[in-house]
């Protein structure tokens, strides 16, 4: 069922250049962030001491901002723009490309501003920038430019989608496009509260225009954004799982309508749930916390659907290739193809990651793990393994597609080695983190023995395991950048397929899944229900605000 | 929309499991009184040191085996610095911050909450075993965050 | 070009079997294992929470 016409460009040159510009900023940030991350691990394991011109929290800020905000956002926009181009005829029209480049410029200016303030140690506030810790105003302005720039990436996708719909009236949009649009509808709505926080609270306050800040409100606005942020990372990985991986293994999309339903559910239920990041905070009633917890557990369902769809794709494909018995199909999967292997390992990581996420969100149970390094372990296996490994797996074919080169056998083999290093490193590090977190070891903390308290001394062995895992991860990161550099500049020229799977048989997808006003309406209703009263309360019933403070 | 029979069963089991979690959490939180720390009291963060009882942080004895501990968490320490209670004591911690956001955690117990300027947060714990319990800050608060800790001695 | 491939695709699809007949026993067992991991870890930490109260 391959309808890709050989000889026709997968993604035309101008679009490929745009996409590649995003992907490479992503990997530049990734490389720096990996170095910072490795150093943190070594410091915490008590293996090295940082020179006096830097400190743990500065490199921690760099790691978080570059990895969680820059790497992810750039890669996602670059990947989705290329896929939208591929599935709507091979190119983005001029308007969409213009929007894409505008976004890239805004984001890159913002990133540069934020990075400079971090380097000068004027923004050691970590990537959550919780008030009343006050960073340089340029850090917040940089963050605002990054967010606004990313909106333009979304506008480019919406513009292509509208053009496609005008030209294909009455037809169901390609699955990749639909999922990209859903991802950016989520992103545009989710970034509004953090934009409000940055523009109306943090920037005026950091410039001294307003004397104090409503701390509670700033945190609520941040986490209103912070949870959909993790779905903004996850959804592009799901796109690769639903649409690209099935094609890589020679299979089909299991169910078009279920894939779309999963995405609509993620859009609806990833938003009205932010209080599950604030469960241990004063000033939010236990009742409102519970409401957000219940909505959070509902957002698990689309991931349960995804688990089924993935296994089903693997099983039907493996059986077609001659796999028999209960699990014979499993052996028929292309285990030596990094384009499959890397995202597959990512999926495996997502099983304990999902289980850990449910634990984190479970209201009072959060007391066991809140702000412990369990949480750090959790998001290193969600975004750092499930999402990152998928992005690596995508990069191994996306970069050759964009540069008109091929993934050679050797590059594929090196990719396999890289995947193994990353996975083993991540497994060791995150296992130690989960274990330590359950003992109460705090996250985001420089090397310390708490005045040689026996409990803290007992944590040290596992902190060394973390450091070892971090070392392996760094090796994998260097290897990855070398391979991607090779694929960009040196690999032999040739045709590489942009893997886009289709359904095997005609499926009837309910048209309501593509009626955006309905879903955006439902989403706004849920947001008002979940946040209306608490935010009104925080605006009217609040303690005296906090002045800006610099404690580093 | 077509759903495979197994997928229907799987999603029903999944939704059922999640519903079970919700029911257990609700019963435990609201009927057994184990809801997360959600104190709604407020305070002027600029005036913590002059607002009773935080002007004089320390243990206040309520009965033979129950204490209120009024504490402040600041960059980079806790007040009071040392506390001691007999084995079997229930301690109700009430903590606020005069500066940035801090954390308050006693590893090995469920005492783990955020301390925010402008708010007072609370949690209780009954110390049934003797020892020197570590109290640490688990929210990044600045250059000295890693030294922000104290202990409570249970004899 | 686009339309022609589309019609062709629909004709091809009409002949294919419906997903009804798919054998998904392995998938079912696999997702049940996922469910078991979620249940076990959740109750493990819930037990820890109750034990530390």
UniProtKB/TrEMBL annotation, chain A:
A GO BP term, please?
aerobic respiration
Which Gene3D superfamilies does its entry note?
A: Cytochrome c oxidase-like, subunit I domain
Cited InterPro entries: Ba3-like_Oxidase_I, Cyt_c_oxase-like_su1_dom, Cyt_c_oxase-like_su1_sf, Cyt_C_Oxase_1, Cyt_c_Oxase_su1_BS
Q: Which family does it belong to?
A: Belongs to the heme-copper respiratory oxidase family.
* Protein name per its UniProtKB record: Cytochrome c oxidase subunit I
Alphabetized GO MF terms: cytochrome-c oxidase activity; heme binding
What is one GO cellular-component annotation here? membrane
Does the keyword section mention Protein biosynthesis?
no
Automatic annotation (TrEMBL), chain B:
Q: Provide the Gene Ontology terms for cellular component.
A: cell envelope; membrane
Q: Where is the Cytochrome oxidase subunit II copper A binding domain?
A: 60-155
Which controlled-vocabulary keywords does the entry list?
Copper, Metal-binding
* Highest taxon in the source lineage: Bacteria
InterPro entries annotated for this entry?
Ba3_CcO_II_C (IPR034214), CcO_II-like_C (IPR002429), Copper_CuA (IPR001505), Cupredoxin (IPR008972), NosZ/Cyto_c_oxidase_sub2 (IPR051403)
Asked if Metal-binding is a keyword of the record, the answer is yes
> Could you tell me what reaction this enzyme catalyses?
4 Fe(II)-[cytochrome c] + O2 + 8 H(+)(in) = 4 Fe(III)-[cytochrome c] + 2 H2O + 4 H(+)(out)
Q: Where in the cell is it found?
A: Cell envelope
Q: Name one GO molecular function term.
A: copper ion binding
Q: List the PANTHER family.
A: CYTOCHROME C OXIDASE SUBUNIT II (PTHR42838), NITROUS-OXIDE REDUCTASE (PTHR42838:SF2)
What functional role does this protein have? Subunits I and II form the functional core of the enzyme complex. Electrons originating in cytochrome c are transferred via heme a and Cu(A) to the binuclear center formed by heme a3 and Cu(B).
What protein does this entry describe? Cytochrome aa3 subunit 2
